[in-house]
Each structure stands twice: as structure tokens, then as C-alpha cells.
């Protein structure tokens, strides 16, 4: 089904405008992202990554709605899910850079409240992929605050990962100044 939707979005850039039940559609996508079936998750996120340019004025609302279940996929044990999640969030931020604050709030909330230490550690390792040049001038303080809290409150390995991510972010931001 996702392959057919992807093909439809490639053929018709207006498909989403005419789609009748957008809310129900995204609730179902959110349910898929919350499940454990990684093959379906991969296809779902791949569809989102390829089709999001066709979401028009609904893009930010739709993707931010999914973000609480998309961010943890950055730490998936399945590398294909992890990589397509990175690509999807990068694509979203390129299309909608002013949504960075919302993405960072979701990420920070996940990092500070999740009890899944393994996934949290992997998300910290993967999130520097979001430090794309298009966002160098934007405010990353929400993430820096969360990383600082992780460094102060986490066990050694996660604290070191948070410190490394903060250093990478600082390096990207210093290149702009």
C-alpha cells in the first residue's frame, strides 16, 4: 500500500490536497510508527520522506503530529529504519526549517523522559545528522539544554554521548559565526 501511495505522490503532486480523510490517515500512520513491525515502519517512513513535499500547507502539522513516534526510530535496532528516519527528518527540516523548534522540543522531551536507555543512547548518537547547513543559523538552545541535562543526570555512556553530540553541534554553529 505504501509503495502505491509513493507512486501516486510522484505522479500527482496535488494528490494530498484531494485526499478526503487526512486526519484519519495520519492517525493510522502514527499507529504504524508506534508498533514493532519494522518492515512496515520502514515502508511508512520511506513514503513520508518521499511524499512530504506534496503535503502543502499541512506539512508541518502532519509531520509534527508524527514526530513523537518518529524521533525514537532514530535509535531503532534496524539500521534501515534508522537511516530512513534520519532522511525523513532531514527532508522535513529542509522543507520547513522554521519547524526546527518543534522537532527539538520533541527530541528533548524524548531524551529527558524516555526510560529506554538503549534507544535514547542511539538517538543521541544519530541526531547530529540533523545538523544540516540549512539550519546553522537557527536556535538549537533547546537541544543544548537537553544534552546538558543528560550529561548531568545520566550514566557515563549516555553522558559521554550527550557531550559528544553537544560538541558536534557547537562545532557546526561555530563554523557559521
TrEMBL record:
Organism source for this protein? Strongylus vulgaris (Blood worm)
Q: Which InterPro entries match?
A: ARM-like, ARM-type_fold
Write down what this protein is called.
TOG domain-containing protein
Amino acid at each position: 500500500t505504501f509503495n502505491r501511495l509513493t507512486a501516486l505522490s510522484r505522479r500527482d503532486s496535488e494528490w494530498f490536497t484531494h485526499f478526503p480523510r487526512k486526519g484519519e490517515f495520519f492517525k493510522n500512520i502514527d499507529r504504524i510508527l508506534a508498533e514493532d513491525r519494522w518492515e512496515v515502519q520502514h515502508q511508512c517512513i520511506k513514503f513520508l520522506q518521499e511524499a512530504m513535499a506534496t503535503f502543502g500547507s499541512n506539512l508541518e502539522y502532519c509531520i509534527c503530529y508524527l514526530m513523537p513516534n518518529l524521533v525514537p526510530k532514530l535509535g531503532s535496532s534496524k539500521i534501515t529504519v534508522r537511516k530512513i528516519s534520519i532522511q525523513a527528518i532531514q527532508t522535513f527540516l529542509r522543507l520547513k526549517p522554521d519547524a526546527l523548534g518543534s522537532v527539538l522540543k520533541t527530541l528533548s522531551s524524548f531524551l529527558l523522559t524516555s526510560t529506554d536507555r538503549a534507544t535514547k543512547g542511539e538517538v543521541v548518537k544519530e541526531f547530529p545528522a540533523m545538523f544540516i547547513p540549512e539550519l546553522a543559523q537557527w536556535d538549537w538552545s533547546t537541544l543544548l539544554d537537553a544534552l546538558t541535562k543528560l550529561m548531568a543526570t545520566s550514566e557515563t555512556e549516555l553522558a559521554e554521548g550527550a557531550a559528544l553530540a553537544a560538541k558536534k553541534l557547537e562545532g557546526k554553529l561555530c563554523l557559521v559565526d
